């Protein structure tokens, strides 16, 4: 027969119950590690109920004994409670995917648990797809007043001297096959250009740049700027 009243609360905060609940939770967790559909197993109502019972028990223990618990024990208890709360919140979410292009907006996603398209909680727009590459060797041809003047071999991120100017190869775009360069004179920024002909230099600046050769680039990382629409 289960204890009642004050004794019931003491039993709910007891070490014996801790061992029972922890043992049951540990034993119930083992099969889930062997299954492919771990999400379905760990989100099952029976497992969630067991996890909730352990959480309630730990919360009662913490509140009832908080004055006698050491600081380190309080940190452990709080950490476990926060972790379990995060697990429960995560269990209410779902996985969805969608194909989308830069600049496009979508209002539907495919939910894998339902195996169907559903309305997205928010409209999603891909503002920009960003890419960063490892430094790549390039050859840049320099023209002065429209005539061949020099040929420079360097890696992106490096610089070379051009008479009184310093020219830095900032970035290589493999899709456009173009290098963006920045030109300085001492510490003064003169302007920038790319090797396809776009330039922002003062009138009368005599140099232009052409990409002669490059090596295959290696991607360092991709990231996406997203907008969530109301």
Give me the Rg, rounded.
Answer: 31 Å
Helix content: 25-40%
- How many individual β-strands? 12
Q: Which class of secondary structure composition applies to the elements?
A: alpha+beta
Beta-strand level of the residues, as a percent range?
A: 35-45%
Rounded mean pLDDT score: 86
Q: Counting H and I runs of at least 4 residues, what is the number of helices?
A: 5
How would you sum up the major sheet? Answer: 5 strands, antiparallel
Order of helices and strands: HHHHHEEEEEEEEEEEE
The low-pLDDT segments are: none
Shape by Cα distribution: elongated
Q: N-to-C terminal Cα separation, in Å?
A: 55 Å
Please list the strands of the largest sheet in the order they lie side by side: 6-7-8-9-10
Explained architecture:
Helix content is 32%, strand content 40%. Helix 2 (15-32) runs antiparallel to helix 4 (45-65) and helix 4 packs antiparallel against helix 5. Strand 1 and strand 2 (105-111) form a beta hairpin. By secondary structure, the chain is α+β, with helices and mostly antiparallel strands. The strands form 3 sheets. It has a 5-stranded antiparallel sheet with strand order 6-7-8-9-10, with no helix packed on it. It has a 4-stranded antiparallel sheet with strand order 1-2-3-12, with no helix packed on it. A 3-stranded antiparallel sheet has the order 5-4-11, with no helix packed on it. The two termini are 55 Å apart. The relative contact order is 0.10.
């Amino acid at each position: 027969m289960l204890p009642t009243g004050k004794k019931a609360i003491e039993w709910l905060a007891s070490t014996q119950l801790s061992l029972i609940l922890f043992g049951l939770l540990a034993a119930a967790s083992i099969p889930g590690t062997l299954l492919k559909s771990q999400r379905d197993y760990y989100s099952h109502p029976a497992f969630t109920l067991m996890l909730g019972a352990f959480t309630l028990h730990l919360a009662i223990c913490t509140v009832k004994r908080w004055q006698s618990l050491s600081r380190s024990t309080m940190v452990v208890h709080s950490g476990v409670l926060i972790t379990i709360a995060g697990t429960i919140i995560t269990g209410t979410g779902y996985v969805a995917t969608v194909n989308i292009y830069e600049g496009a907006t979508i209002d539907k996603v495919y939910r894998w648990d339902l195996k169907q398209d559903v309305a997205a909680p928010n409209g999603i727009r891909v503002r920009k797809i960003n890419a960063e590459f490892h430094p790549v060797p390039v050859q840049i041809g320099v023209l002065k007043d429209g005539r061949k003047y020099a040929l420079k071999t360097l890696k992106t991120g490096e610089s070379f001297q051009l008479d009184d100017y310093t020219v830095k190869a900032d970035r290589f775009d493999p899709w456009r096959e173009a290098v963006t360069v920045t030109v300085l004179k001492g510490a003064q920024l003169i302007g920038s250009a790319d090797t396809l002909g776009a330039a922002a230099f003062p009138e009368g600046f005599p140099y232009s740049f052409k990409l002669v050769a490059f090596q295959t680039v290696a991607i360092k990382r991709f990231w996406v700027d997203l907008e969530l629409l109301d």
